[in-house]
């Protein structure tokens, strides 16, 4: 669901840039910003948009060039909030304020700050102007669900015009609101209709699976096993929720005394190598089902396999804990700073040497993910700041050399200009022979025309160069100031990275400890179950 | 029956077995209403640091542009793909007055961004005021996987203002358009 909201924001990010495209340089600027942001390079896109305008003009830059979306992508919500509050009440500005407030509300909703999201949403004035009322009401309903105002959320979602409902998502959220507000029948019916939706869209198919799983659980809670099984059966086997569906479907069948069919479902899970909650559960459930059928030898073998697996996982986990204590995890995230955008962890988890860090398992923890995101962003920024320091040093050296060069080159250029001026006077006919207007006179003599052009060109260059030369001391002063500020920021960044790194380590360690405990408990249970199965298989127990 | 599951199956067996797992799964499939509003700011104020970094780096970018590429010598060349024209670009190269100034090989992400309306800054450099010749070569991957090159020459005159030139690649009937965008 959060991914969907993020995609809405991305669409909104592009829209203002595309729809308000202008001619010339402005269009090139917007195109450049779009080029960077479409590649997930939000920082570069924002820097592009700021680079063209002085900071005093940032407020209009924010609204016109889609900078608000980029600021939010970098987590600069206070900047956006300030921009909204300080902008004038001019009608055109009001429209962009409304749009920005709407984006800010989505941002806070995604950051799980519903009260701030609601405040941003309430600040939208003249609602129909720039943001559609349906979009506002849809977001309001989602926020209501977050803060437990389910009845109001259900009413808002139900009343949304059909045409403006984001397909599938409205239905799912409506079902949630109905179920949570105690309207069980309607909630189940909404889920059932969503679970049978015809679609080939990947996101909607995943949502459809989610609806079927949710519906299955509702039936389970009610004790309607048959209906629960039907719902679980509708979940695709190649979808992201297939593991959950297989596991719970197996338990449902088991409860209906259809043990053989439960074995089929669990066998599919049992074959998987990835270690996650569902697979671990299946490693225990499958031998249990075999023992229920009296196949104690088979059950003993499977329990033995589970014991081996848990032992090796416990060893791996100990090694991981040790690596985290040594700082390997934080180092891996920090060193991965070149992976721009939101998918830094994908690149990191693909690197084979990181396999022992249990990254996918850790990233499933929201708190870890948030802190790791923050660490990654800080590392990326620190890298830019370090690059900035190198660039400042190079620019200062360049400015120094330029000044030195112009100090010697400009007098020589002045001499050359005087020479050209003399040459022009030499080829100029005497005043008495001139009978025509000055322009016509000059045009008649080709050498003079060429000289005039060369002279004009030199004059133009001299003017521009003199201006540039005059600015050089100012550039040097600004560079010195930037150098000081960047050095200070670099230090602050180092401290922030160290502090965030410690938090990341602490959360990772706590998460691993919890899984470690679980694994030990599974290992313990598997050992006992193995002993029992062995006893049954060898006839020591009846 | 085995101890582990016998214990778990006591009582209302179905729900009892499911309970721990149900709780986990329900947490996964439900958009939980129990989100807590985070109170104060985190120990590290990432937003303030980000804001400061963005501000300083953007100041540096502007300063560098003024220092290295002053308007009276600056020339920038941009590349875009024509609207409603999806192209699989392979690479592009530029020559100014017969000097090779840049070559670029496209990634999938870059091509996607260009096809969605993005404009790439291909080159920024310095030239003297006066007449100049730009030679553009854009290579495109065709349906059969072969690479086809499109070339075009453009003459322009540089004055004391920054010169901005846009190369537009149109894939409908593959060709290049070059225009000044000052």
What does this structure look like?
The complex is a heterodimer of chains A (542) and B (182). Chain A is an all-alpha fold and 542 residues long. Among the domains of chain A are: 1-131; 344-429 and 438-537, Orthogonal Bundle (Helix Hairpins). Chain A has helices at 2-19, 24-38, 42-51, 58-64, 67-73, 77-86, 91-110, 114-122, 133-146, 150-159, 169-180, 184-195, 202-222, 225-233, 242-255, 259-270, 277-292, 296-325, 328-335, 344-350, 359-363, 366-427, 438-443, 446-537. Chain B has helices at residues 3-9, 13-29, 46-68, 108-115; strands spanning 74-81, 89-96, 99-105, 120-126, 130-141, 147-158, 163-170, 175-180. Chain B has a domain at 70-180: Immunoglobulins (Immunoglobulin-like, Sandwich). Chain B starts with a helix and ends with a strand. Helix content of chain B is 30%, strand content 37%. In chain B, 26% of the residues are buried. Chain B is α+β, with helices and mostly antiparallel strands and 182 residues long. Classes of the chains: A mainly alpha (542), B alpha+beta (182). At the A-B interface, helix 1, helix 2, helix 3, helix 6 and helix 8 of A face helix 1, helix 2, helix 3 and helix 4 of B.
In the CATH hierarchy, the third-tier topology of one domain in chain A is known as Helix Hairpins
Structural class of chain A: mainly alpha
Helix content of chain B: 25-40%
CATH superfamily descriptor of one domain in chain B: Immunoglobulins
The H/E string of chain B reads: HHHEEEHEEEEE
CATH topology of one domain in chain B: Immunoglobulin-like
Poorly predicted runs of 5 or more residues of chain A: 1-22
């Amino acid at each position: 669901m959060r991914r969907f909201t993020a995609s809405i924001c991305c669409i909104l990010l592009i829209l203002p840039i595309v729809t308000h495209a202008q001619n010339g340089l402005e269009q090139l600027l917007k195109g450049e910003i779009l080029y960077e942001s479409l590649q997930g390079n939000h920082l570069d896109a924002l820097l592009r948009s700021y680079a063209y305008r002085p900071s005093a003009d940032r407020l209009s830059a924010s609204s016109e060039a889609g900078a608000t979306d980029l600021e939010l992508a970098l987590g600069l919500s206070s900047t956006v909030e300030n921009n909204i509050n300080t902008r004038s009440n001019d009608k055109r500005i009001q429209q962009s304020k409304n749009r920005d407030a709407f984006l800010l509300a989505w941002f806070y909703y995604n950051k799980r700050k519903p009260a701030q999201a609601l405040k941003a949403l309430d600040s939208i004035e003249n609602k129909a102007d720039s943001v559609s009322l349906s979009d506002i009401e849809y977001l309001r309903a989602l926020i209501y669900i977050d803060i437990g105002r389910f009845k109001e959320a259900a009413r808002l979602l139900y009343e949304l015009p059909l045409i403006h409902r984001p397909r599938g998502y409205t239905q799912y959220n409506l079902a949630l609101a109905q179920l949570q507000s105690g309207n069980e029948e309607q909630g189940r019916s909404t889920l059932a209709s969503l679970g049978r939706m015809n679609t080939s869209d990947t996101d909607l198919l995943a949502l459809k699976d989610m609806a079927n799983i949710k519906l299955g659980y509702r039936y389970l809670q009610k004790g309607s096993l048959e209906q629960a099984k039907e719902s679980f059966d509708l979940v695709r086997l190649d979808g992201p929720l297939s593991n959950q569906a297989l596991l719970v479907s197996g338990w449902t069948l088991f409860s209906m005394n259809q043990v053989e069919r439960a074995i089929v479902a669990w066998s599919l899970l049992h074959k998987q190598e990835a270690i996650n909650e569902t697979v671990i559960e299946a490693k225990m459930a499958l031998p249990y089902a075999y023992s229920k059928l009296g196949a104690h030898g088979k059950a003993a073998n499977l329990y033995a396999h589970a014991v081996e697996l848990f032992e090796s996982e416990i060893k791996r986990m100990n090694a991981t804990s040790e690596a985290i204590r040594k700082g390997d995890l934080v180092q891996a995230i920090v060193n991965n700073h070149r992976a721009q955008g939101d998918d830094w962890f994908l690149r990191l988890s693909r690197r084979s040497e990181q396999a022992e860090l249990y990254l996918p398992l850790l990233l499933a923890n929201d708190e870890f993910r948030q802190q790791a995101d923050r660490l990654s962003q800080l590392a990326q920024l620190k890298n830019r700041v370090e690059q900035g320091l190198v660039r400042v040093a190079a620019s200062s050296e360049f400015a120094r050399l330029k000044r030195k060069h112009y100090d010697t080159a400009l007098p020589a250029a002045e001499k050359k200009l005087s020479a050209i001026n003399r040459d022009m006077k030499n080829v100029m006919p005497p005043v008495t022979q001139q009978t025509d207007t000055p322009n016509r006179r000059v045009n008649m003599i080709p050498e003079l025309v060429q000289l005039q052009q060369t002279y004009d060109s030199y004059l133009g260059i001299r003017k521009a160069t003199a201006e540039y030369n005059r600015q050089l001391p100012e550039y040097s002063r600004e560079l010195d100031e930037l150098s000081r500020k960047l050095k200070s920021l670099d230090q602050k960044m180092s401290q922030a990275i160290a502090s965030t790194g410690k938090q990341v380590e602490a959360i990772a360690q706590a998460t691993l400890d919890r899984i470690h405990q679980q694994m030990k408990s599974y290992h313990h249970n598997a050992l006992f179950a193995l002993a029992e199965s062995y006893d049954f298989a060898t006839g020591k127990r009846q | 029956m085995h101890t582990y599951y016998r214990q778990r199956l006591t009582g209302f067996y179905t729900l009892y077995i499911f309970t721990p797992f149900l709780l986990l799964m329900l947490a996964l499939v439900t958009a939980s209403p129990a989100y807590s509003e985070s109170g104060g700011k985190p120990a590290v104020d990432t937003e303030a640091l980000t804001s400061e970094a963005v501000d300083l780096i953007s100041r540096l970018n502007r300063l560098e542009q003024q220092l290295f590429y002053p308007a009276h010598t600056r020339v920038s060349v941009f590349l875009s793909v024509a609207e409603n024209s999806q192209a699989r670009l392979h690479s592009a190269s530029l020559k100014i007055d017969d000097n090779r100034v840049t070559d670029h090989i496209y990634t999938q992400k870059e091509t996607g961004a260009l096809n969605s309306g993005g404009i790439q800054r291909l080159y920024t450099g310095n030239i003297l005021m006066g007449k100049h010749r730009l030679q553009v070569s854009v290579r495109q991957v065709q349906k059969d996987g072969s690479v086809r090159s499109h070339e075009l020459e453009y003459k322009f005159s540089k004055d004391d203002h920054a010169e901005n030139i846009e190369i537009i690649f149109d894939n409908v009937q593959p060709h290049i358009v070059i225009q000044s965008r000052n």
